[in-house]
Amino acid sequence: MEEAPDEFQVIAELFAPLARGFPGALGLKDDAALLPEAPGTDLVLTADAMVAGVHFLPDDPPDLVARKLLRVNLSDLAAKGARPVAALLTAAFPLGTTLDWLRRFAAGLGEDLERYGLPLIGGDTVATPGPLTLSLTALGRVPAGGALLRGAARVGDTIWVSGTIGDGTLGLEAARGGLAGMDPSDIAWLASRYRLPEPRVTVGPQLAGLAHAAMDVSDGLVQDLGHICRASGIGAVVEAARVPLSPAARAALAAGRSQLASLLTGGDDYELLFTAPPDAAAALAGLTAAGVALTAIGRMVRGTGVEVVGPDGGTLRLARTGWRHFAAPG
Amino acid sequence: MEEAPDEFQVIAELFAPLARGFPGALGLKDDAALLPEAPGTDLVLTADAMVAGVHFLPDDPPDLVARKLLRVNLSDLAAKGARPVAALLTAAFPLGTTLDWLRRFAAGLGEDLERYGLPLIGGDTVATPGPLTLSLTALGRVPAGGALLRGAARVGDTIWVSGTIGDGTLGLEAARGGLAGMDPSDIAWLASRYRLPEPRVTVGPQLAGLAHAAMDVSDGLVQDLGHICRASGIGAVVEAARVPLSPAARAALAAGRSQLASLLTGGDDYELLFTAPPDAAAALAGLTAAGVALTAIGRMVRGTGVEVVGPDGGTLRLARTGWRHFAAPG
Q1: Given pLDDT bands bounded at 50, 70 and 90, which one contains residue B324?
Q2: What pLDDT is attached to residue A102?
Q3: pLDDT given at position A329
Q4: CA–CA separation, B293 and B52 (whole Å)
Q5: What is the pTM of this model?
Q6: A194: which residues sit within 8 A by CB, 6+ positions away?
Q7: What distance in Å separates the CA atoms of residue A284 and residue A207, rounded to the nearest whole number?
């Protein structure tokens, strides 16, 4: 039987290399990290937790689990218009976690930290008799006062999303084997969208000065837009037919394997959702050319809540608006 | 059966009040928090995780669990010489956690946030099929370049600790009912030391300019001092007879309920451990008058590792040096 990995060895060999190049991380050898403060900027801080069996599948590859954990946090930073600066990881690893598993986890985390240009500067590793439970705190920076907030939407704003909507919830189904019969390449693509979201780190900071309100779509488009409505004190009308869908999602709809309402309320898309005045459309179209499609899907209106207008012009009725983390997982 | 508490309601009613007075927390309604950066200071960041059944007892009162979680992080900040600024909490609550339990948890957290003068500015709450798993990221501030680090000890430095050593490990035993027969008031006092450490937040920042290396004693005095030795590239000699013990710990020793070696290697003390040049002794004695005793227990020497000199003048042999989080809990 393999000996339990030693905490200090794991940190020194697997995680300390992820702090390289950032002196304030103190080589992950101290109890804290240092971040010299920069005048004229605001730090943006976000933290997300993930539990095996709830937020990812227990047998998901460890490198993808680590990368998703980082990416969901980077998605939050991007939605605030922030550039990533550093991350802290706390991990409760199940008893019996092998050194090989940890190596793959750290390798995946390292790959994405390098891809997105930020160091791991601290955290904590503990053992748990329960499922793998991860928490990551990500720090980003915006010019002082420049963060995009939920509550800044105005009546008349156009509502925009990046990328395509609904792939996350379909991807979860695909990863669970629930879309058997569909084109295998569509299934694989959807599963990868679920396992490895693409945080819109390039587009997010470019929205500064163009967008009013912003957040990322993590709990379902309708519910998340509802948060912008509540925080801004106004309402929203979404035209379902304008919501951008991937070819795979269109195929799932055409084959009767999903419904539009499910795609608009499913979680795990990690696309940007933002509002902008109509006269920002041309500038936003310019950003579109940078690689990620931005699509106008509706407008902010007087009133409260989100109305979704279906393809037939009538209001689409939704059984649920999105995902609530705190209730029992469905 | 009570309905599962709603995530948004829990955050709005129980946790958002803990963000009051700090605009950058955005009322815990956004996905991120904002912290305007201050020139001339370094942020100090630390994160600790705690798992029910590993780091606290599953039936510990929820308010004490929350307060301990905050305090162990504040202890890390204090050991760096930092004043607390803000905290982010991620919590994986077991399915079936009641609103009453959550209320008591939030009340305890709120009580100590107020006591130590920092707001909750963000985080995440999720459900878990496993044990309660908590992670807290704490931010503090020091004057730029002024943080106390592990690696700054020098040969000839005096080794100091705050408070008393060994109460944490005795307190765990007391909380488990393992000290039956001892004076009930000693048992209660020790258990409270385990459940509710006193982070040395006042003394820590006052060590700036006086201390060289510092950390907090969380995994056992000898092991933690070993970290300072390794990071500083030198050794340490501790005189066991000088290590300050509480009256309750002395009673436990006298009654044969514990051994000195156990007290020097047990975890959960959350006292400050630091080194300072001999000529700082008078100034440090002045701090002693501020409420927490500071005691010189040894000195830093050429060499490697920690030698503990026993009451008889010989080297004390230790079966283990401290607590390793990552291995299976003992």
Answers
A1: low
A2: 96
A3: 35
A4: 32
A5: 0.92
A6: A167, A168, A170, A171, A172, A174, A175, A268
A7: 8
Angle at A225 between CA A50 and CA A74, to 5 degrees: 40
Strands A83-94 and A120-128: parallel
For chain B, counts of helices (H) and of strands (E): 10, 11
Q: Find chain A residues with C-beta within 8 A of B26's C-beta.
A: 149-151
**Structure tokens of A272?**
């940007």
What is the DSSP secondary-structure string of B9-45?
HHIIIIIGGGGTT-GGGGGG-SSSEEEE--TTEEEEE
Residues paired with residue B84 on neighbouring β-strands, in sequence order:
B140
List the structure tokens of A117: 């240009």
Using DSSP bridges, classify how beta strands A235-239 and A214-217 pair: parallel, antiparallel or unpaired: unpaired
Which amino acid would we find at residue B322? G
Helix axes A247-254, A167-175, angle to 10 degrees: 70
Instruction: Mark residue B270 as left, alpha or beta (left: phi above 0; alpha: psi -120 to 50; beta: remaining).
Output: left
DSSP string, A106-164: HHHHHHHHHHHT--EEEEEEEEESSS-EEEEEEEEEEETT---BGGG--TTPEEEEES-
Q: What is the pLDDT of residues B44-64, one digit of tens each?
A: 999 999 999 998 888 899 999
- Token digits for B327? 């291995």
Question: Contact, A56 vs A65, CB < 8 A?
Answer: yes
- Report residues of chain A scoring pLDDT below 70: 1-4, 289-290, 321-330
Residue A215 has its nearest CB partner, among B31, B39, B79, at B31
d(CA B80, CA B147): 5
- Chain B residues touching A92 at Cβ < 8 A: 49, 51, 133
Integer Cα distance of A289 and A104 in angstroms: 35
Nearest residue of chain B to residue A26 (CA atoms): B149
| For residue B329, pLDDT beyond 60 | no
Alpha carbon B40 to its chain centroid, in Å, reads 27
- B130 contacts in A (CB within 8 Å)? 51, 128-131, 133
Structural domains in chain A, CATH included, are 7-143 (3.30.1330.10), 150-309 (3.90.650.10)
- Asked if the model's pLDDT at residue B289 lies above 80, the reply is no
Report residue B8's pLDDT band, with 50, 70 and 90 as the boundaries. Answer: confident
User: Tokens 């030698």 correspond to what residue?
Assistant: B307
- b or e along A176-189 (b: 16 or more beta carbons within 10 Å of the residue's beta carbon)? eeebeebeeebbeb
